[in-house]
Amino acid sequence: MKKEFRVKKNKEFQEAFKKGKSFANRQFVVYILRKEEQNHFRIGLSVSKKIGNAVMRNQIKRYIRQAFLELEEEIKPQYDLIVIARKPVAEMDFHEVKKSLIHVLKVSRVLNKPRLGNTKNQ
Question: What is a single cellular component term in the Gene Ontology annotation (predicted)?
Fold first, then answer.
């Protein structure tokens, strides 16, 4: 994930928490803030120390970044997304993390309709 596509500053996180909308499932909470001037979405990640040691937290963050990289074409560009991982994520593999993220992003209506060549049966 390129640097310009990440939310890094505390001020930007706080703005998303205060002005954005939140959507959640058991594994993730996602705060979404629409920014009209952006031409690419940005993500910010938060994985609490309650979830595990540094190795586990970094692995979870890598899984989330990779999932967003694979979903890049389907995510609407004008958003800041703050992803907060919950405890059940610690026992999940990459494919489960991606599936859970897709679910919460569909609920939040940030995903575009999938392309015709991108069906479940493939």
Answer: ribonuclease P complex
99 token code pair? 């599936």
Residue 121 pLDDT exceeds 50: no
The answer to whether 64 and 105 have CB atoms below 8 angstroms apart is: no
Kindly provide the residue ranges of all beta strands, DSSP E only, lying in the chain, ordered along the sequence. 21-24, 28-34, 42-47, 79-85
Is 66 in contact with 94 (CB distance < 8 Å)?
Answer: yes
* CATH assignment of 3-107, among 3.30.230.10, 3.30.70.260, 3.20.20.150, 3.30.365.10: 3.30.230.10
Residue 76 C-alpha from the chain's centroid: 12
Q: Which DSSP helix (H) or strand (E) runs through 101?
A: helix 94-107
Mean pLDDT of all residues in the chain?
88
Q: What is the pTM of this model?
A: 0.85
What are the residue boundaries of the structural domains of the chain, listed by start? 3-107
Residue type, 102: I
